[in-house]
Amino acid sequence: MSTASVIIIGAGISGISAAKVLVENGVEDVLILEATDRIGGRIQKQNFGDVPVELGAGWIAGVGGKESNPVWELASRFNLRTCFSDYTNARFNIYDRSGKIFPTGIAADSYKKAVDSAILKLKSLEAQCSSGQVAEETPSSPKTPIELAIDFILHDFEMAEVEPISTYVDFGEREFLVADERGYECLLYKMAEEFLFTSHGNILDNRLKLNQVVREVQQSRNGVVVKTEDGSVYEANYVIVSASIGVLQSDLLSFQPPLPRWKTEAIQKCDVMVYTKIFLKFPQCFWPCGPGQEFFIYAHEQRGYFTFWQHMENAYPGSNILVVTLTNEQSKRVEAQSDQETMKEAMSVLRDMFGSTIPYATDILVPRWWNNRFQRGSYSNYPMISDNQLLQNIKAPVGRVFFTGEHTSEKFSGYVHGGYLAGIDTSKYLLEEMKQSLLLQPLLNFTESLTLTHQKPNSQIYTNVNFISGTS
Questions:
Q1: What is the C-alpha separation between 400 and 412, in angstroms, rounded?
Q2: Pick from 298, 306, 286: which is nearest to 90 by CA?
Q3: Per DSSP, what are the bridge partners of residue 308?
Q4: CB-CB contact of 249 with 264 (8 Å)
């Protein structure tokens, strides 16, 4: 296929869910162009230490509420194996640099202080936005290692104690780690099987083209032309761009004519979170593995320095794998150095916590989401106080080019279910647009015939056509 009704750029969960809705509603000539050699986007598994680990999205967040999380429904439908993750005890498993765990009372007091400070900061920002004045009371910055560690847990590790977050309010507060040999990505393959031709788990449908790096999107009144890095050219009536916000901020993809200023400014204003899970394999387990000890914290003078740890024994007993999570500047720093350098740093931290006699790691896996030109980060991160118009401008279509992805989800940005629902919403909006265009076509054809037969066509007809075209 080189022509289609709709071209979808990107085969992550938004792109796949968008394509599925279109096909189910009669738009069968869709074409999905994916830059890599697989579907899944930022949902990606890799075998490490004889078990599959999730390099990107790893949890189904928001389970157990009155309303059902659609991704949890998919996981249940396709028998995805998961493990409940209990974060509540993490704050009481905080190690100092001498290997001692902070007393429960000190940890609880430090945590309460951090939450109060975060709420005060939020109120301060709200006051500045509403009145332009600085609040009388300003939050204190974390200074001690334990304060820095807890601040990292609250603000970087997605723990939702500071303000109500729609995911937990709507769907429930429980989170489940994906621990399935097929990987989290199997949900996308199962979805794809419902509208693309597959054989023995392989997608053989020519409506999905892998290794097609889109570099340019040209649109006119009559349609859209998409050009790829290998010189391929595709044509469509409409395009859905499901590339990440990080990619949209980069120079990988260009638009002709250029996107309007309101669009580019909105895209650049959205922050990108870099979230790196580093996996370490050991010859044996040397860390506590009892109830409430899945997660543990390292308190260091440098914020976010190998702070948040998790063992994989609950998910894969006997795997002897530890995971440490880095974010943002620490992620970028580690991506720029060798894996062996990162291994040394991680081992130094572990020996602080568990002693110098622990065994050295036998292997390490360091994902590089920031330096991946097809991702450029892990997920969108809107400011704590932001104008709703910012998100509306990011998700708004420009002519025949529509935008989707977790960054366009009004309530669930940053989450897998946000990406899934965004793809559905974008396709439904496009279907309405296509329906309106079909309704308008006879009227447009009529006015074109008038133009051919009269030097001065009826101005009232043109006024009505322009008005309808603009609102559609």
A1: 25
A2: 298
A3: 297, 325
A4: no
In whole angstroms, give the CA distance from residue 162 to residue 342: 32
CB 57 within 8 A of CB 158: no
Q: What are phi and psi of 263, to 5 degrees?
A: -75, -50
**Are the beta carbons of 8 and 17 closer than 8 angstroms?**
no
Amino acid letter, residue 297: I
Whether the predicted pLDDT of 159 surpasses 70:
no
pLDDT, one tens digit per residue, over 435-453 is 998 876 665 555 555 444 4
Length of the chain: 472
Domains of the chain: 3-44+185-270+384-434 (3.50.50.60), 48-178+275-365 (3.90.660.10)
pLDDT tens track for 244-295:
999 999 999 999 999 999 999 999 999 999 999 999 999 999 999 988 999 9
Copy the structure tokens of residue 93. Answer: 């498993």
Q: How large is the average pLDDT for residues 171-177?
A: 96
Give the up-direction half-sphere exposure of residue 209: CA atoms within 13 A in the CB hemisphere: 20
Q: What is the pTM of this model?
A: 0.89
C-alpha 424/C-alpha 407 separation (Å) is 14
Q: End-to-end distance of the chain based on CA atoms, in angstroms?
A: 29
